[in-house]
């Protein structure tokens, strides 16, 4: 190497080629190389522009590279990504179409991710739902070879991680499989990052994350006619025993998954996945112990001991969509004694009162759990005898959660008042599934939306919301 460079002092292009190959191999920037080799961060750009390199400088550069190759110098760099891979990842981040698809005349929760994050950060809904799951799981018996859980949608992972803490505490020695249906890269990144800690406390856990539709996710297979085909499958065994070990390995996964985990306009401009994707991750040192819980592409006959569906459909969805494309596919994969819990908004709380004040002639569109259960039974026909249905009484079905960061409404501090009202309005719009174009129009029109929000907050002393839940349990004898 030394002789090569000293003999190439009259051929700057050849020297640049050698240096750039070295930088590529070690993952260091050209400016870093120049600074470390000869204390000149602009060395490579100057040579590449045609400047002559002195023999002494060439000798120092050659010695620096030789010492690095012998291991005498430890270079800290990062592997360079191919341009196409970098572009895909950057586009998945920037064109994260959860926030860029605005379907005319319709509403999708994924069009309002900015509202969702405010809602999730300023209410305790995640905590309350996790407590409900904990109560349900306490009454269930794990299967002989483990506990299988289906969770949809993944959202930001807070509900799920709190529920898994309880599950792992209840059954510390029981292997667990968690199948999580998500939608976009944002959900995947937030949820996946929170799950790595669970692998430390409960090593025998297999996580399966997918962006497939619900009716596909319970099979981990592409069965719908719409949307892109060609299912992408990732099986990842994490090495090490610390959460930090898994976190570092997970970082590379996001770049690989990015082109698959964003949404694109599908039929009628409704969002669909860019590519159907499944990613399984678990601990390498536990592979043999949980092999039966690690699904394989094309060979996954899943059953679930518990399924939790959180607002799994929109107010605008038809009853047929709710029963045939969401509820029945999940019910059909319940194990004997397995339970499906569904949570949806009731439509009768202070948040919906604000909506009815701002849009007095608009139908909020909430469909009662009673109507859904009746439609589900009709759709099941004689097969309904294999299941029991709970949630008919309000006492066991309704639960409240609150906007827990809202201060007392006072005219004394107009800045605090405005911020509080805007946050409350945001949460009202999100929870009530108001179309974004309607919300924006109300905000441009006048201050009536803020007046209505303030009046409701004073009336009830804050902002709270009411969900309703119902369950379907497969009978043991079935």
Can you tell me about this structure?
- By secondary structure, the chain is α/β, with parallel strands linked by helices.
- It contains 19 helices and twelve strands.
- Strands 1, 2, 3, 4, 7, 8, 9, 10, 11 and 12 form a ten-stranded mixed β-sheet that branches.
- Helix 7 packs across helix 17, helix 14 runs antiparallel to helix 19 (448-460) and helix 17 (414-431) crosses helix 19 (448-460).
- It is globular, with a radius of gyration of 28 Å.
- Mean pLDDT is 84; it is low at 78-86, 88-110 and 412-416.
Outline the secondary-structure elements.
Elements: H1 2-6, H2 12-26, H3 30-38, H4 43-48, H5 55-69, H6 83-94, H7 113-122, H8 125-138, E1 147-152, H9 158-170, E2 176-181, H10 185-201, E3 205-210, H11 214-217, E4 232-238, H12 243-257, E5 263-265, E6 271-273, E7 277-283, E8 304-310, H13 319-331, E9 334-345, H14 350-358, H15 369-380, E10 387-390, H16 394-397, E11 398-402, H17 414-431, H18 436-445, H19 448-460, E12 464-474
Parallel strand pairs: 1-2, 1-8, 2-3, 4-7, 8-9
Antiparallel strand pairs: 3-7, 5-6, 9-12, 10-12, 11-12
Helix pairs in contact: 3-5, 6-12, 7-17, 8-9, 9-10, 10-12, 13-15, 14-17, 14-19, 17-19
The overall pLDDT average reads 84
Helices, by number, come to 19
Helix content: 40-55%
General form? globular
Tell me the span between the first and last alpha carbons.
Answer: 75 Å
Number of strands: 12
Described by strand count, sense and barrel closure, the largest sheet is:
10 strands, mixed
What structural category do the secondary elements indicate?
alpha/beta
- Kindly provide the radius of gyration, computed on alpha-carbon positions and rounded to a whole number of angstroms: 28 Å
Strand content: 15-25%
Parts with pLDDT < 50 across at least 5 consecutive residues: 78-86, 88-110, 412-416
